[in-house]
Amino acid sequence: MFSSRDKAEVKLYFDSSNEENLKILEQCPSLYQEYNAKVTDNDRINNIEGSEPTIRNGVTYYPPYYLYNSHVMNYYGSFKIPKLNLPIRRESLINPADNGTISLDWFELGEFKEDTPTIVICHGLTGGSHERYIQYFARKAYKEKGFRCVVFNYRGCAGNKVTAEKLYSAVQLDDIKYITEYVQQQLPSVKKWFLVGFSLGSAILVNYLAAAGKNSPYLAHVSISNPMNMIECTKNLSSTYINNLIYNKGLANNLKRLAFKFGDRLEKYGTKEQIGACQTIMDFDNLVTSKMFGFETAEQYYLAASSSQSIDKLEKPILFINAIDDPIAPVAGFPWDKFKSNPNTILATTRWGAHLGFISYEDHLSFSDKIAVEYLSTFLKDDAQDKTE
Questions:
Q1: Less Cβ crowding at N or C end of the chain, within 10 Å?
Q2: Could you confirm whether 364 is annotated as catalytic?
Q3: For the whole prediction, is pTM greater than 0.70?
Q4: Is 94 in the same domain as 124?
Q5: Range of the domain at 164
Q6: Does 326 qualify as catalytic in the annotation?
Q7: 123 part of a folded domain
Q8: Is 129 among the catalytic positions?
């Protein structure tokens, strides 16, 4: 550990007038421990106005000494952690709204009761159930509390066939609505449903929850590495040579490979040559995504899709986990005041962790997985359902 205790402190943002928030945090010792100190302007993140936390926190997070660099953390989390290859059972589904093909991958980690609490997981930009961060989270949730986990794989992702005119996006909610109804029909005895999103999946989660309000069947939610303000995200992706080379161009290439699976269906937005010429995510979103979902420009799409626009509209419990050094989802543009005034939200930020990394020096496993499962576990008690209705 090469940094001060204050830098490593996990900063928490929530509505302190809501006693339930404190009760939840007190049940999450990996997320919150009492710390006898006052909050001052010195506790702000990068001196951003309003970013001082709600309360001081006794919990700290340190990565291993060789993962303090965010790019190294991202590489390690994506490629160096051993693959788990957890057993899954796949269900391929057709959304009758437009005949788009999606799938559900159920992790078969043991015997489950009919009413076992179940977590639906939304993956990142072009990911799926095979991703390391997905599988490690599912294993953690099962081993710690016996959760059943199922991954919602988007159109064209994780081996899904392309059968419709449209891709997916942070504002395309037809698929998440469809699979939510479907899993409830398949498991009618489950009373405790949870929704967890990673990266783009967390943006889909937030937009779904903002639209559903109290009618969402999910009891509680977790958002990890949320691209909170997508306009600021695109700025940060182009801000340095490394960010642009590794992330901006890399993610754009992933999107282009996905788009080519759609063949001639996307010609109304751009030719194969035009799509192939996209060098950044914003190039692709200006050409394809924005037009496909009814926007004139990528910036208009980003504004509508950004979770920062919806924090005050969330009516059920949700924990957000973001790293200050995330090169893909920077904290610039975070709606700090909204987190502090919505009684349903808790935001936890760590000094390190990068994007979907959060590897801890203590066990070389994900700190975000630990606190996410701990948070969701507080809703397993019999009275939890009543408190969220």
A1: C
A2: no
A3: yes
A4: yes
A5: 65-229+306-388
A6: yes
A7: yes
A8: no
